Amino acid sequence: MSFHTLLLRATFVVLSVLIATPLAAQEIDASFKAPAPRFTDTDRRQKLASAFPEIDRIVRDFATKSHIPGAAWGIVIDGELAHVGTVGFRELDSKSPVDADTVFRIASMTKSFTAMAILKLRDDGKLSLDDPAERYVPELKALLYPTADSPRITIRHLLSHSEGFPEDNPWGDRQLAVPAEQFSRMVRGGIPFSNAPGVAYEYSNYGFAILGRIVARASGTTYDDYMNANILRPLGLNASTFEPSSVPPSRLAHGYRWENDQWREEPQLAHGSFGAMGGMLMSLRDLGRYISAYLDSWPPRDEAERGPIRRASLREMQQAARSSGARIVRDPDTKRLQLAASGYGYGLGETQTCDFRIISHGGGLPGFGSTMRWLPEYGVGFIALGNRTYTEWGRVATPVLDELAKTGGLQRRAVQPSPALLKAKDAVTQLVNQWDDKLADSIAAGNLFLDRSKEDRQKQIEELRGGTNSCRADDLFVVENALRGKWIMKCDRGNLQVGITMAPTMPPLVQHLDVKKTDKPVVEKAEICAR
Asked: Percent of the chain at pLDDT above 70?
């Protein structure tokens, strides 16, 4: 056997061992991994709690002016229902007061439960979001699509309200009790399209009713049974149900509408095939537990999963899959203008304002109105339930968040740097103080001195430094993500702002370096909106 043949065989054996060896055994560089973002203000909870009395006043005034018979609201902080407020009655005839365990219909907030079930089935390998919906609901095969080039409706289209069906509020509300066979006949009879699938957002109750049928077909059980066994009970939502008759009469909220200056009771709508879009009933206490599951999915981290659905899937639900447009709105009370860019994820809406990224959904049915909204990066949420038709909770949600912000406790988690970023910061700080070619070469990605020569970078930094070697890095390191950050260096002849971005190399090296004069003592941050 020749020497070259032996060498090739030996190389093959070595490569085979490396491929078969787990990554940890190969000692792959993990210097890019950063600790999870965390809250750094130890007084945060106490500060936020100082807003509770004013929040209660705002909501009580709203309930009075809006003629809401009874309401319950709460503030969730870090997975805990930290505050509960109530006003009025769950039933007017008996003057029975509302409390945190009163069970209200939550209407369209049910859509997030249905979406959660779909993603759990996806995670369990029972379906794919890109499956054609007609695979599970054969009645859809007869649909007449609006154009010859329309794609077949997928589960993803239905989840994000982009299947092309027309907006159907309030028609959908009155379909809640439709029996299964009637639902099948309706679908077979055809559904008109307002858009081709996959091109636009348009809210569809009908689409989520179809998702309820998909949950049943993919799971091999009824929608209700799947939800109870796999979502509601594992989350500890023991007061939540789809059947009004299963709620103890002493806890059930009666629904009302305000008409001709008086309240008129609305009959409880029965649960049927459209229940997947709006049939859930639950208490404020259960709703607090429910949005705590979403808040707990942030930030991404190494911690063990607690279920019943993966944290990554919960985060997926909270990110826009279909844009629903941007708008400028004026607050009716403060008159402040606010930019809001919105989209729909899976059963949840996402809105980016100048101040926050807000995840939310509302609900409205004859006799009821509800809202849930939370700030994932801040660990805080606001929830409210009322027993008046289409209770307009959106009018108080923004003032509630404003009150929490006034306390100073509404601060986002601080992003933490990776070891590679910290190492690069220290090295760049040394370079700014005294340039050293060897040190510069050790931290530079391949592009850094091709984009701008080493000599020119050295000259620029020395000019900015002004001939002094006494610059020192400020303690504050503003970290944008695990591999990007900025800091201030205070020099005898003025301050410098230094920023670095690491390259996608192993180990991560500096691909972008920015050093500039600044008259500010802290890092300049880009604002989302101009004030």
From this structure: 93
